[in-house]
Design a protein that fits this description.
Elements: H1 3-7, H2 30-34, H3 45-56, H4 60-79, H5 86-93, H6 99-111, H7 117-128, H8 143-150, H9 167-178, H10 180-198, H11 204-217, E1 220-225, H12 233-250, E2 263-266, H13 268-271, H14 280-301, E3 304-307, H15 315-326, E4 337-342, H16 348-362, E5 366-371, H17 376-386, H18 397-411, E6 420-425, H19 429-438, E7 445-449, H20 454-464, E8 468-474, H21 481-491, H22 497-502, H23 508-511, H24 515-520, H25 551-564, E9 569-571, E10 573-575, E11 578-580, E12 582-585, E13 588-591, E14 594-599, E15 602-611, H26 615-633, H27 637-653, H28 655-666, H29 670-695, E16 698-702, E17 708-715, E18 719-722, H30 730-741, E19 746-749, H31 755-768, E20 775-777, H32 782-789, E21 796-800, H33 803-814, E22 825-829, E23 835-838, H34 844-856, E24 868-872, H35 873-887, H36 908-923, E25 927-932, E26 952-956, E27 970-976, H37 981-989, E28 996-1000, H38 1004-1013, E29 1018-1021, H39 1052-1055, E30 1057-1063, E31 1071-1072
Parallel strand pairs: 1-2, 1-8, 2-3, 3-4, 4-5, 5-6, 6-7, 7-8, 9-15, 16-31, 18-19, 18-21, 19-20, 21-22, 23-24, 23-28, 24-27, 26-27, 28-29
Antiparallel strand pairs: 10-11, 12-13, 14-15, 16-17, 17-30, 25-26
Helix pairs in contact: 3-18, 4-19, 5-8, 6-7, 7-10, 8-10, 9-10, 12-14, 14-15, 16-18, 18-19, 25-28, 26-32, 27-29, 27-31, 28-29, 28-31, 29-30, 34-35
Length: 1084
């Protein structure tokens, strides 16, 4: 059974949306209604929107009234000379579909936080010199546009511009005339002025003063304290105190009589660094307590509190917390606790029905703000990255608008009056008109963002007497970034209603069309331009990943894994399809000894037993594989591909058992285990495609004598695949299926520490149709590997492991030519001394989040893991403090718990080596231990019964002092001077390793310079540096880090084959070459 059928609801739609219009619907229990929310997480969009359409469909009267009202609103706004405010003018001139718009926002995003002049000047040059800025400098533009364009708020137009001046030339002339300090100060001033347009005040007191003119008009306010997700407890405490101060200060803010009282919006992610569904115990501990303190304070001074909406994965934990807070005695009898729900969420209407029932049961009215949603791009990309069964959001803008109106119709139902106070947040004039047209009463309010849509809402307030609340950010301008980016994405794009409303060239008739009519006019209700997550690679199906943050998927997944963990497994070698439990030596038969396999996180837990092979058995395996080569090579590529795809399917069908094995034997955490299986599945399907592609590839050539020849890909022969314990399924599978795809037989020798996983994988391959003669499976230690690589019958070795072992294998192969005289080939992927370079334009929170995941994910046991965090000295203190705080929030312990971030290292040898390095660093005069994450209290076992190494950060003053790769959860931190960047690059290159590199910088020129100069296989910019995706980011290194070609790339399978010349006319060719020698046997 496919895992989607196992781990997602078979029937996700448990009610008809039109039922919600009946008062009887919310007479069902809150538990019943809550159970209908989660199954809708990634429900089929076409089907679910079809069900919602009747609720959103306007009557003819509603359609006509909404259209007419929209026309009047647009005409009014366009007539109003004051309607285009400074922010609006900026968005109109620099929409995000222009290069200048993107560059200006990039500059605004980074410049305010850059502390050093050297980097600030580089950033300004980087953004200002590559676009045509002068076309935006016009006499009829407002101050905001011209000031942001040239950054000359303090100096005025000092330099004249003629029609032949280029942007870079103009910048050069300005710089020569005024000097870089003046340009820098002017740009920083311009960016701050831009920030003022979006922020009501740096403090709540300043916001009080600045909001007075709007409150005089009749507006009320919701204050949003700027700042995003906390990544340390110190951050969370600061945000808590900011919220507490805001609540107390808001009590003094007066609004016109009859208007709803002011409120404060809070983000739960700002109040706790681990606000995640997988950390429920922490959420209902410290986070809940902080929320109750804020509720108590708000109630005391008569200020409403609204819990903001965030990412889809946090939704269900937020609903559980909201119910807990709403039912608490502290909240009883108070109608001030509100919630924000996103209209683009497929779960939205089910949430509203549940909340209406909650209000019925408890009796306190709930303020509910309906927004369109601000994380759409993130949700789409995350769903694709995770391999989900579908998207949690609608894929068309008109889909969101239509679903929004379906929700609005329910919220405006007469039977909800007194239970729900609807708050409609929108800048879309048609949405405003539709809500007013739909409603038989005026018991609701509209909401808008500070700095946007003034003219539209001034008119609504005056003409219709409907309350309007301004959602206003308050805080320091350096905290503006995430808010600003979301606002720009929402409202700066040309498809945005805001943009079209103010653009007088855009026809009004297009703005008056009802979103329902737009939606049903499409051939499909969903957007076919956005393929489902499992279809993003076209014909090749992407690997599936269950979502552990969503109850309707997590609960069946967790139960299935728990059931599998009750098992124990056995492993032994398999030759010609026969399990090997004995061997013959010097005429005598000997039984192989069985050894227990114990979980690295608790040696009292037995995973199974393994019988290790020896050199005699290894030689038998080679003989069997060589004997089977002709038969396997003769199997058509299409059939080989079919078998590999079937292997992928079987892996997914056995997801839970593979998860249990990864946890018990390899000590992998829940998400690491999912990623492991996904990568293995991707390898199978991609290399299946490669088998078919290369089989069809024919090279037509002419040899030196003028004869017409063709070259086709043929198998090389038997390959030995030696895989590591750190990716016991993914790399193990990738090696084997690549060789099988090429038509080669395989002797697989997995790492002895993870023989059980490998054995189960081999069984699934046989079940998929891999013939017993094509795959031989041998478990054992170094003696077995040595015997295999010393054979003179093999065509090559695929190896992943240490550099030293790879060098020994290479030497062995050089001494053991095949009978043909050809040397066996070696593909080796080895270690890395991987660095992440961070300059002062980087966002510190993003740096620390990415560095911690890259260094400590998988307990640091990844070839690609970050080993050295190189931070520009101007920002090093702040980043180190964040790093220490974020490390303190990690959960180290039992990997079978979904809350665990860091599990054990693989065995006692690994543990001893890593702890010896930490001890050496403690006594090293030039090194400082910055911090260690303690064990989780729930996972502590005695020192002798587990192999945990605490995540450790160590500051060093040079790369040399580190002394090679340390394969575990140890991160070294190195400061560097901005002017010494090239020296740092030389030091990184000087290690001899060349696997991965991370770069965090907002200066494209610097990122490109680093990428050009550092010699590595994979570079990652402004993200973490682990988790390369098959055929998206082929993975492999250079120098001491490997031979290439990259795994999961277009050259890998081809390297395992040889081009063989055949005389005669060529058939279909993929490409041709001119005269060449026929002795070519392989691709470079």
């Amino acid at each position: 059974m496919h895992p989607i059928d196992q781990f997602t609801p078979q029937e996700p739609i448990l009610f008809q949306p039109t039922e919600l219009l009946s008062p009887d619907y919310i007479k069902q229990s809150s538990d019943e209604l809550y159970a209908r929310i989660s199954p809708l997480y990634s429900v089929d969009e076409e089907r679910w929107l079809s069900e919602l359409l009747p609720l959103a469909k306007p009557t003819e009267a509603e359609r006509d009234a909404a259209s007419e009202q929209t026309r009047k609103l647009v005409e009014y706004v366009r007539r109003d000379s004051k309607s285009v405010k400074m922010v609006d003018s900026l968005l109109l001139e620099y929409s995000l579909d222009t290069q200048e718009g993107i560059l200006l926002m990039s500059l605004a995003e980074a410049l305010i936080r850059v502390p050093d002049n050297y980097t600030a000047d580089a950033l300004i040059r980087d953004k200002m010199s590559v676009a045509d800025w002068k076309k935006h400098l016009k006499d009829n533009n407002g101050m905001m546009v011209n000031a942001s364009t040239w950054g000359l708020m303090m100096t005025g137009r000092v330099v004249s511009i003629d029609s032949s001046t280029t942007a870079s030339g103009f910048l050069d002339r300005m710089t020569k005339k005024m000097g870089e300090p003046m340009i820098r100060a002017a740009m920083q001033k311009a960016m701050r002025i831009m920030g003022y347009q979006f922020v009501l005040g740096e403090t709540i007191e300043e916001a009080n003063r600045n909001s007075q003119p709007y409150r005089n008009k009749g507006y009320t306010y919701s204050f949003d304290m700027l700042g995003e997700a906390a990544i340390t407890n110190k951050d969370a405490e600061k945000y808590f105190n900011d919220y507490l101060h805001a609540i107390k200060s808001t009590a003094n803010i007066k609004v016109k009589e009859g208007m709803p009282k002011p409120s404060v919006s809070i983000k739960l992610s700002a109040l706790h660094p681990r606000y995640e569904a997988t950390q429920e115990a922490q959420v209902f501990g410290r986070l809940r307590q902080r929320c109750l303190l804020l509720i108590e304070a708000a109630r005391e001074v008569n200020v409403d509190l609204s819990i903001d909406a965030e990412e889809a994965d946090r939704l269900e934990i937020s609903l559980k917390l909201f119910e807990s807070l709403y039912r608490d005695p502290i909240t009883a009898g108070w109608d001030g606790l509100g919630l924000v729900v996103q209209g683009y969420s497929k779960r939205a209407i089910a949430i509203f029905a549940w909340l209406a029932r909650l209000a019925t049961e408890v009796g306190d009215r709930i303020p509910l703000r309906l927004v369109k949603g601000a994380y759409w791009d993130t949700e789409i990309k995350l769903a694709q990255q995770k391999g989900l069964s579908g998207y949690p959001v609608w894929t068309r803008k008109e889909g969101t608008d239509t679903a929004y109106l379906a929700c609005a119709r329910f919220l405006l139902s007469d039977h909800l009056r007194g239970l729900i106070w609807p708050q409609f947040a929108t800048h879309n004039a048609h949405t405003l008109a539709s809500v007013m047209t739909m409603s038989s009463h005026r018991d609701f309010e509209f909401q808008r963002l500070h700095g946007m849509g003034d003219a539209l809402y001034d008119h609504i307030l005056q003409t219709y007497q409907i309350p309007v609340r301004i959602y206003a950010p308050v805080g320091a301008h350096q905290d503006l970034l995430p808010y600003l980016v979301r606002r720009l994405l929402e409202n700066g794009a040309n498809s945005s209603f805001v943009h079209q409303l103010l653009d007088k060239s855009y026809p009004i008739d297009k703005l008056t069309v009802h979103p329902y009519d737009k939606l049903v006019a499409n051939e499909h209700l969903h957007n076919p331009e956005i393929p489902l997550p499992l279809e993003i690679y076209g014909e090749r199906e992407a690997s599936y990943g269950p979502n552990i943050f969503v109850d309707s998927q997590w609960q069946p997944f967790d139960a299935a894994i728990a059931e599998q963990r009750k098992k124990t497994w056995t492993a032994t070698s398999i030759i010609d399809g026969q399990a090997i439990s004995e061997y013959t030596k010097e005429g005598a038969t000997h039984q192989l000894e069985s050894q227990n396999v114990l979980a690295p996180w608790n040696h009292n837990v037995k995973a199974g037993e393994v019988q290790y092979a020896n050199a005699e058995i290894a030689n038998q395996a080679i003989e069997a594989a060589v004997a089977g080569q002709a038969a396997w090579q003769a199997v058509p590529a299409a059939r080989r591909a079919e078998i590999l795809r079937k292997t992928a399917d079987l892996y997914e069908e056995n997801y839970a058992e593979l998860m249990a094995l990864c946890q018990l034997e390899a000590g992998k955490t829940m998400q690491d285990s999912i990623d492991e299986i996904k990568e293995a599945v991707d390898f199978c399907r991609f290399y299946a495609d490669e088998a078919e592609r290369l089989a069809a590839e024919v090279h037509e050539i002419t040899d030196l004598s003028g004869k017409s020849l063709r070259q086709v890909y043929k198998a090389r022969g038997t390959f030995v695949c030696i895989s590591p314990w750190n990716f016991p399924l993914a790399i193990y599978t990738g090696q084997i299926v690549a060789a099988l795809a090429a038509g080669n037989t395989v002797v697989a020798k997995p790492a002895e520490q993870t023989s059980l996983i490998a054995h189960f994988g081999a069984q699934l391959m046989y079940q998929a149709g891999v013939p017993s003669e094509a795959l031989q499976f041998v478990v054992g230690a170094g003696e077995v590997g040595g015997a295999l690589t010393a054979s003179d019958q093999i065509a090559g070795v695929i190896f992943t492991g240490s550099t030293q072992t790879a060098q020994r294998i290479n030497q062995s192969l050089n001494n053991h030519a095949q009978t043909s005289g050809e040397l066996p080939i070696l593909i080796a992927e080895t270690g890395g001394q991987n660095a992440m370079i961070v300059d002062s334009t980087a966002l510190p929170e993003q740096v620390v989040t990415d560095a911690v995941l890259s260094a400590f994910g998988s307990a640091g046991q990844r070839c690609s893991a970050c080993r050295i965090l190189c931070v520009q000295e101007d920002v090093a203190d702040g980043i180190i403090e964040l790093l220490q705080g974020h490390m303190a929030e990690l959960v180290v312990g039992n990997p079978t718990y979904v809350s665990t971030d860091v599990g054990p290292v693989i065995d006692s040898d690994a543990k001893k080596g890593l702890e010896a390095h930490i001890e050496r660093m403690q006594s090293e005069a030039t090194a400082t231990i910055l911090g260690q994450t303690p064990m989780s209290a729930s996972s502590v076992v005695s020192e002798d019964e587990a192999t945990f190494v605490l995540p450790t950060a160590i500051e060093v003053n040079s790369i040399d002092v580190i002394g090679g790769e340390h394969f575990g959860p140890i991160l070294h931190v190195l400061r560097y001077k901005a002017r010494d960047l090239d020296k740092l690059i030389d030091a990184i290159n000087g290690t001899g390793f060349g696997l991965t590199l991370g770069i965090h910088s907002r200066i494209e020129n610097i990122a490109e310079h680093i990428e050009r100069r550092v010699v590595v296989g994979n570079t990652y910019v402004n993200r973490n540096q682990i988790g390369a995706v098959v055929n998206v980011q082929p993975f492999g290194g250079t120098g001491l880090s490997g031979t290439g070609p990259k795994a999961g790339g277009p050259h890998y399978v081809a390297r395992l084959m040889k081009l063989s010349a055949e005389q005669g006319a060529a058939g279909n060719t993929t490409h041709s070459t001119n005269t060449q020698s026929t002795t070519q046997t392989q691709l470079a």
